[in-house]
Structure formats: structure tokens, C-alpha cells
Model the fold of this input.
Amino acid sequence: MTGDDYENRKVAAQLEEPVREANALARKLGLEPYPVNYWIIDYDEMNALIAYDGFQTRYPHWRWGMKYEQQQKQTQFLGGKAFEIVNNDNPSNAFLQVSNSMADQKAVITHVEAHADFFRNNRWFRLFAETQPNAAAMLARHAETIGEYMADPEIDRSEVEAWIDSILCLEDNIDQHRPFRSASYRASRLPDEEDIDERLKSLNISEEVLREVFDEEWLEARRKGDETPTFPPEPEKDILAFLWSYGKQFDEENGKARDMEEWQRDVLEILRRESYYFAPQKMTKIMNEGWAAYWESMMMGEEHFAGADEFISYADHQAKVLGSPGLNPYKLGKELWEYIENTTNRAMVAERLLRIDGVTWRNFHDVIDFDAVMESLQPDAMVDSIRPETLSNLDPDDPRIDAEALALAKDGEIDVEAYPWKVLTFEGLAERHFSLVKHQNQGFIKRITQEELERLTRYMFDDSQYADVGEALSDLDFTKGWDRMAEIRESHNDVTFLDEFLTQEFVDENHYFTYEYVQTTRDFRVTSVDYRDVKKKLMLQFTNFGRPTILVLDGNYNNRNELLLGHRYNGVMLDLEQATQVLERVFDLWGRPVSLKTIIKEVDDHAIEVARRRDREPEPEERGKLIRYDGETVSVEDLPWEEVEPIAADDVDYDTKPKEWLA
Done:
């Protein structure tokens, strides 16, 4: 056994109890994580795993080496440190760095348990696999398959790498809002054009019924013998699947397109499958990291999972994580989850207070004694302070007390000094950690607006009346905030999360704002603290993984088997140089000329100068453009507005939900 092996085993043995107890505490708090395998690794292994996106085996490609170098240099020169990495699998696998202090290891373990809960319960992760991702095995199979192609003497390794390069330029061009289906399955569900015509004729459907069932434009296109219907019938978001079904490779020797080799189609589908696997993690970065940071803080700080000699170190490291500059998903996510908990609890309390005799939404702030409210919300001493000498005061029949654990604690089989939470149930822990009595939230109830009070009154169906504050708040459901958080954790992604829960109150409390590059002053300026502007900025960064939304508009453009893509313009223009480079990669996968419709903004120097004199921003002019690559040259031509109007948004179009959700 080497020295490194000995050290790893020593650390692993020390972590057996924290791992066991962190999982037990997470479950007490209502989390339902996947089982987690914990691995102890060194600094270099951690960097390699980060480069491999959290897995030990990936397909051979130069990108992993590049990411490894980036991670090493980031740690070396920018002072960052990766404490852990965890993957979405069942069981999940979490990797802890052997050099972490015990405080850091405990923080990582509690953080990981919350991630494993999110992986298991968020519906977006189930779009790839309902219950069993089998990710490690899947990625290992992919690595083996691509490795075999590269080792095949009849296949040029450089061709495989170049093919992968082209696919990776489009790795996010999938339909992440729909369940994963293999490209071959999708292709089998799409009849070709002749099949559609034959089936329509054979059905003997009347003209009236046809108009009810099918889109008018589509029917008209089919009736005109001199025009070819658009193919696909509707814009296709999963570009990789479309290329798998209809793409070809360009034969440079003969100067024409020919069918893909079997290995090319196989590699394309492998990388597409991996894109679908990783998509939910990209779609829920704020929610997932915020969820993990929230429960880590709850366990380490409020439930004292960090020992007295570990807490200062833990608090220092968490403050650095939450205080990292730029758009910080840990900080934003944690703040939003706390805000959701607080607003849910506040609404519950306010509803009770509004049913006190003489209290209305109009006089609420004048007649409610908020000091009495805070006193009534304090947790019962029975659950707030649990020590060996207070065990006899606990009632085993109380729903807040875990009777079985209490009996074990009285027999000395549970260390109540170290783990007081063990004798409490979910209900007991919810009361013990009720958010509105925490020091940082003590003014939150009082800040409720009259608009919110009026809304609560309008939908208040329980007409029970109370004599005073004490009676109104005597039997609250302290689990309500956590229950609401669990519901949201199951159904939302980052875009819908921000859209629904980011409010003016949240923006004001947490000091968010937007800034822009101002043409007239040629520098960046704060432009707004309005929550709608902040929301737009944030949602644009997370919609479609923060990438432009590109659709297949026509696979037979101008009836020449050319591919026409469309940029769903949302007010943010493409980088035309990058767009051109990507078109060159798309050509590799289509084998024929490729075009892209988009919209750009143009501002001339005269408009900027006039705007500067009038102390306002110039109004850019939007123009349609068609970029085309034919395998040799790139051309850019202007398009009339009517040609690009279908891809333009009336306002900022976030493309947050499939159309059928909007009924």
C-alpha cells in the first residue's frame, strides 16, 4: 500500500460517521436523496474529474486535456479550490479531496446529500431517464465505442476527432424541454412526404375536416404543384436529431455529398445522448446550487453538524463561496429559496392575523402588535433546546418527537449532545427552524404590502375568527415553507424559477440591478433596479443554456437540398463571426450548403453623435440577414423584413415552455 492509499483510507474511515449522520439528518429534514458513494481522491484526480464533468471515464478527445489545464491554472493562479464534485446517477458518486479539512468534508457531504435529493426529485432530470440514469455505465460504454472507432485501422483517428469537433459545436442544439428519445426512434415516427400524401388520399377526409385538423399554410403548400412543402413541417429544435436523420458528409474527392458512415452516425447519436443527459444540470444550475447551499447551511450551521472547533473555518469558506464575484448561482439560488420560504410562511401567518376580530387588510399595520407576533412564533423550548437533562421533558406522543429515537436516547444509545435532531420529527425540526423568527428575517412580516394583504383577504375561505394574536398563531403548520420549497424543487427549472419568484421586494432586499454599455458615454452604467429588467437580464442568461435558440426551418431550402436554419431572435443579436464558424461545422454534418436567417442591430456614428447631444441612447435599426456557407465561401445578404419577421420576437422571447404548456 502506498502512502497515498494509506492516507485516503484513513480519511475514508474518519468520514464514515459524518456520511452516515448527514444522510440521516437530510432525511429527517424531508430530503429524499439518491444513495451516494463517496470517494476520496487527491488534487490531480479532482482536476481530472472536473475536466471529465464528474465521471471517471469519457471518450478520447483533446477537449478533456484542455479543460484539465484550465482547471489547474485556475486553481494555481486565481486561488480557487474544488472541494467536491457529484454526479447525477443512482447511486450518485461524490468525490472528496483528501486534503480538505474535516469542516470542509462535512460541508461537502451535506451539500452533496442535497444535490442527490434534487437529482432524484426534479422532474427535468426525469426527462432523460425516469428512475435510473445509469450514467457512469452509459458514459463508459460511449468511451469504449468511440475508442474502438479511433483504434480501427480502417478509420482515420483524425477524422473521428474532427467529426466530434463538429458535433460539439452543436451540443446544446437539442430539444431539452422534451423527454429524450433516440434519433432512430424519432425518425421512425416521421413519415416522409410521399407517405403523408398517400395516407391523406387513402383516408378520404373531407376538405372541411382537413381544415380543422391541419394548418392552413401547410395544406396550401401541398396543393400548389409548383411549390414544395417546408420540410420539416414545423421548425425543429433538435438539430442533432435532424442531422442524424437527414445529414450527409461532403466527399471532397468527388465534390458532392454522400451518406454518412455508420461510425459517424453512431458517434453523432452518442454525443446527442450525452447532451440530453447533461441538459437538466445546465437548466437548473441556480435552483440546484441554491438548494444545496440552503440545506448545507441548515445542517452545518443551524443544526451544528459542524463541531464547535470547525464552525469558524466552515463559516469562512461558505462566506467566500457565497461572496464570489459575478453572477453567483450559489448566492442567487440560496437567496431565492430563502425568499420563497419566508413569503410562504408570511402568507400563512398573515392569513391568521387577518382573521383576528377588528383586523382588516387596511388597518393591518396599525393594529397588529408585531412584537407579540414574534413572541408567539418562537419555537417551543421543548424542541428548541434539547440536552440530555431535558429528555425527560419530551412527550413521546407529541408529533414533533420521534418516540423511538427518544427511547434510544434515554438508554444512552444516541449522543444527544452531538445529534439533538435525532429525537425530533420533520414537524419538530420545522418548528425549531421556522424562518420568520431568525434574526435576519425579523422584520419580514411587517414588510408585507397592502396589495398582498388585500389579495390574501380576497382568497381567504376559512372564516374562523380569533380573539388575539396568541390564539390566532397557536396551532400553525410550521412545515408549510419547507413543503412549498419541495413542491417547487420538483417542477421548476431556472427560467421558470426566476420568472415566478423574482419580485421587486427580492430585488430591493438583495440589491440586484442591471447595467449596460452606454453608447453615448462609451462605458458601463447602472441602468435599472426594476425587477422586470433584472428578471429579463437573468432569464436571457439561462434560457437555452444561455445560448442562441437556433431552429431547422427547411431541409430542402430553395428546393436544392440545402439546410436553412433560423435564429429565434430575442433582442440579442448573434456574433456573426462565431455564427459563420459554426455554419462551417454544420456543413460537415449536412454535406451540402447551409444558410442561417438572423436579425442584427445597426447603429451608425451619426445616430450616436445625435443621441449624445440629446443625452439619450441611440435607437438601433434591426435588419434581416442571410448567412450562407457552401463549403468554400461565406456570403451575407440582406433580407426584407417580411422574410425574418417570423423569427423576430415582439418582446424578449424566453422560449421557456413548449407550446402545449401555454393553453
